[in-house]
Amino acid sequence: MDRRQVLQGLAAGLGVAVAPAWAQAWPARPIKLVVPFPGGSSPDIIARAIAEPLAQALGQAIVIDNRPGAGGNIGTAAVAKAEPDGYTLLFTIQGPLVTAPLLTRKLPYDPVKELQPIGLVATSPNVLVVDPKLGASTLADFVRIAREKKGQLNYGSVGNGSAAHLAMESFKSRAGIDLTHVPYQGFPQVVNAILAGQVQAGFMVPAIAMGQVRAGKLKALGVTSLGRVGALPELAPLAEQGFAGFEAVSWQAMLAPAGTPAAIVQRLSTELVRIIRSDEVRSKMLNQYFSAAATTPEGLAALMKSETRRWGDLIKAAGVQPE
């Protein structure tokens, strides 16, 4: 029997009596917050925005541990297998939680069985960007050019099963175009690939895309929310450009290894909700084109379940095959 099973057995046997003991002793040392994407990526930016106030609230340092690779699956697996003692946490986008299980044949973790939701943190639409040299001034131009260059264009994403990947696969199916998928470790790498001419397009969060767009290095063609985004009023939703109902919103959340004591999960949830609702953190998120979105652990679990069902339907409709 491993330590996790022992801890779970103790929790089950002692019931609520174990929770106050854990809560009183925790945290006694720095907490590691694993971000399974590179520094400068959108989850890294938001994780760092909440890390400082969370450290202040808990009285211990929050150490960001970037572990990129495999679309976020490497870092996520590390947390799923970590000791459930409250000292290793996960901050990630939805890909490793809801779509990786649908698209990865040998996923090294089970997000439902091995991870404990703490709470949703932020949401953001994706922006469809293309290489300005492609000559597409509008979404209709891009579709036309992609049809003319069938099979000759590439698009980048942050990995198989990521929102950026599935958004494009869904769009490809709706638009009747053929683009080749090229995965990268994070959005900064996708931007560099477009600038280098290795790929010609991609969906990405505006926090990464818009600086390059406003510098004229990328061309933005629309957003994946159903309605206009307050921070991006100049960009029309794809749903208003001939693709009614098209939506692919990215979200970010915090989780812990399954078996983490309930008192620790509740403390983290309470502090996280308070921090997310603070004016300072909400302002930092808005500056990165994210909207604060606080939930309970149960709310995040329900979101993961509903999103798995929704993306499962989209994957089936788009004909995306597991790897």
Average pLDDT works out at 90
Radius of gyration, taken over Cα atoms and rounded to an integer in Å? 20 Å
Strand content: 15-25%
- According to DSSP, the number of beta strands is 11
Distance between the termini: 33 Å
Which structural category do the helix and sheet elements fall into?
alpha/beta
The biggest sheet, with number of strands, parallel, antiparallel or mixed sense and barrel status, is: 6 strands, mixed
Q: What is the overall silhouette?
A: globular
Contiguous runs where pLDDT drops below 50 for at least 5 residues: 1-19
Number of helices: 13
Order of helices and strands: HHEHEHEHHEEHEHEHEHEEHHEH
Please estimate the helix content.
40-55%
Strand order of the largest sheet: 2-1-3-10-4-11
